[in-house]
Input
Amino acid sequence: MADSGTVISDGMAEVLRRLHLDAPGDPASAWARVLGAEGVALTLLVGAERTPEPMWCHPELSARFEELQFTLGEGPAPDAIRTGSPVLEPDLDRVRPERWPALLSAAAKLGVHGVCCFPLGIGAIRVGVLTVLCDGKRGMGAQQCADAGALAAALTSAFLGGDARRDGDGSALGVPEPASGLHRPAVHQATGMISVQLGVSMQEALLRLRAHAYGSERPLGEVAQDVVARRLRFHDDLTDDFDDDFDDDGSGPHSPDGGKG
Amino acid sequence: MIDMARERRLAEIFVEVADSLVDDFDVIDLLQRLSTRCVELLDVSAAGILLADAYGELQIIAASDEHTRLLELFALQQDQGPCVECYRTGNVRTNIDLTRPETTVAWPRFAARARETGYVATHAIPLRLRNRVVGALNLFQTTPQRLGDDDIALARALADVATIAILQQRTLEQSHVENSQLETALSSRILIEQVKGVLAERWNTSVDDAFAAFRSYARARHLRLSEFAKQIVSGGFDTADIPPPARDRTGDHHG
Output
């Protein structure tokens, strides 16, 4: 194993380079191949109700297992969504029966022996879940875990506003890669502030922040710092986001009373 | 005498950590306490613990103080800085003089930002898990005195404690679970940043003050920071119950 933590395989690096959400076809088969998995499914949470919708599944077995988990409302994917943590059960025979009482026997009938689920999301934001089916005997190696985790992170980034990759190194649009400012504490702090300013979900707040950065052609982290320093507020207007020009000394909290105009 | 006191303090810290590990503990809070202890014991100005994410990029998980300026300095270490090097090579990097031109050449943005924040020296100690490096402990000093061999040994011990804490969140059976522990810790960290923003906006305070109020409320009631943060974000907790940070002028318009 590599000495420093998790290193993505060349195969996965290639997959991530080519990742385009609106590309034709079902990318899940390529993901399954690179991960050496029995199957891969991506389920997104859509609408205000956060309804799970399978988006890409390969092969058919994956689609059926996905349907099973969400119909029964139990299993590693619902758990991963609820907790925001990966749920890794590469050998379902070793899972306590009471954990998923209905799912386990149904999974065995389907021929699913091991499952690893990686949530898509950032902090309180939940986007969906990546379910990887694995051979119960071989399990899931560190390399596969690293690859699947990186894929989930890239997809999260892509679904939360995609092309924000511009900020850093100006690489091509639509190529979700790590970073894109999402490692900056200020981005998450600003997201929380905007969610209160607009009375919207954390997810929408982040999208609005990114849209603003995109629209004003500024790096996400820089816009976020303006929000945190209260040089920029978001207003719930039909018009675009609105800049409040407070005195720009950048130090100390301003307490303008006009927050909720 | 000083060394005796320090050894006793170290022993106390190990006991404190061991006590925390028995239950379903709050990893972020524990790592923050540990960072504070690093500052005390090693006589440095600031300490932070960084973990590698799924891409192998370092993310800050806890720091001795939560000032955004310090957090941003840790956040800069994506592609440059002593922690990146320490993570890649697995070697301890100590007594790095931030004022020397070599340092600026090696890590221009990091060195400039660190000096702006008032630091003149920095150290990075790997967080090791068997043959893997999973992150780094990063120390900063505002004064130029050197860390000696004893200090470095102590810093390594504290880094090991941090690694153990991260991996002890639940029982470990298989090695791949370790990766998910790291991911979970990072995700909790981001959730806490989001909550800082929510509270700062509701109370019209700085995010730093909002966090201080949030944390003291959680600690006094033995709430796990990440669980508590989750409740606040989901609307399951009325934040009007938390005493807002004291300010010289009242700016709170919650409730």
User: Anything to note?
Assistant: The radius of gyration of chain B is 18 Å. Residues 170-175, 248-255 of chain B have pLDDT under 50 and may be disordered. Chain B has two domains: 2-169, 173-255.
